[in-house]
Amino acid sequence: MPRIYLECPARTPTSIQDLPSEVLIEIFTYLAHIDGLSPLTTVASVCQPWRSIVFNAPSVWRLIALDSRAHDIGALQTHALYWMTKSEPLEFDVEVNVAERDDILLLLSPFLSQPQKRWRSFALTGPDTHGVYLLQNVGRTTKLAISVRGDSGSIASAILGIPEEDGVKDSVNLDISQNTLGVAVNALPSPSRIHPIYLTIIHICDALPEVYTKPSALLAFLTACPNLQQFVFMGWTLRRDKDEDGDDQDDHQTFVEEKLPVVYLPHLQVLRLRSTCSTRTILSRIHTPTLSELYLTYLNVDFPLPPHVDEGDEGDSDDESGDFSRSPSSDRATGMGLRKLIKRSNPPLRVLDMDCSDMRTKDFRYVFDHLHKLEEFSIVASDLSDNVIRLLAPYYESSGRGTVKLRVPRLGVLRLFDCIRVSGDAILETLSRRAEVMVNYHCGGGTFREVSIMGCERFAQIHGQALRPRLGGAVFRYDI
């Protein structure tokens, strides 16, 4: 971009100095669109009158041009913040020219560091700029979707919170109601290189099976998101049996990391983890005192996970129940992570949804004993045993006939889908007794609002017919 040199001429009857300030502002604004740095580096240095006009004219500063091929990232971030301040209260336009895709999020972070409503337009150029998806109304962006080593399809997956193999292929044709910024990166940026991101919804996905976002990098990034209310992370649970030299190895040994600091997320209300072997580390290293909804999806794996740095914590011993499991290692990881989260944060969890995700019987007991505000529990494709379902039955406070108690006393919605090991007799007995106690004793909660039992092979029509009248006015769905 050519440099512009101006001189303040001697005053004559037709001197530029005689032009009204409004005309000079229009000229300086035009110059700023030729050279984005001209308000500070050129016009303001000509003479004091021009400097005064420039520094008091927001319109001169409303184009924010950032070029990482010519300037340092840190200097450009400072530039962006300064131009945003000087252009107040006008809307501003952003033009970004990047050397590589990882520069995009770094350069945009200043604009995400405050609830901006003045961001009017966005233009992006550079050799690797296909990795961005931005709605037109950029000033009202509330959601950030990051695809690690992805393309347009994986950005769309991150935006919607579902994997690409589930049908998302092209972000260009998406009709997304939320104002979303989607960015592809080679790796999550260090929090020391970005400004705090004050968006409330963030989705992160590993785009390819060979991509592995370390928990340390994920947790470090979350420290830069103090206003986070909803967070989704999608990874992969594929076991890799060859190293770079083609030798056999358990590549998941790379999951063993040093003990990580705890990330405080005071506003997080919704957390979704999908297809990751880092469940225990993530759940164990976040403090979420307002978390109300937790969704755990496709966390079960049939291979052993490596030892965890927190092994030896209370509850980490083998499960005494001896219940069958097709995913014992991930069951332990999920259960121990959830235990640590509950113990640290005591979250007011209202919804717990587990899809192809399991825990040991002892972990279910701990969870049910501590989630006093849980209203909805759904579990899909689980090895759920009779011992677990019977935890929902009423019990007495002491060995005698003391006060009748209920675990998760506010539970009003129960969904069991494709739980093929739990028996119809255990479901019928447990839910019948619970419904009776909920009605007659009012154990801190209400009655069932919905019960769904679908694809549970050992739950027969006779069980459904017997259970229906005992659930009162609850919506009851079952199949055989």
UniProtKB/TrEMBL annotation:
GO BP: any one term: positive regulation of protein ubiquitination
Limits of the F-box domain: 13-64
Region listing for Disordered, in residue ranges: 308-338
Bias type Acidic residues, positions: 311-322
InterPro entries attached to this UniProt entry: F-box-like_dom_sf, F-box_dom, LRR_dom_sf
Protein name as annotated: F-box domain-containing protein
Organism: Pleurotus eryngii
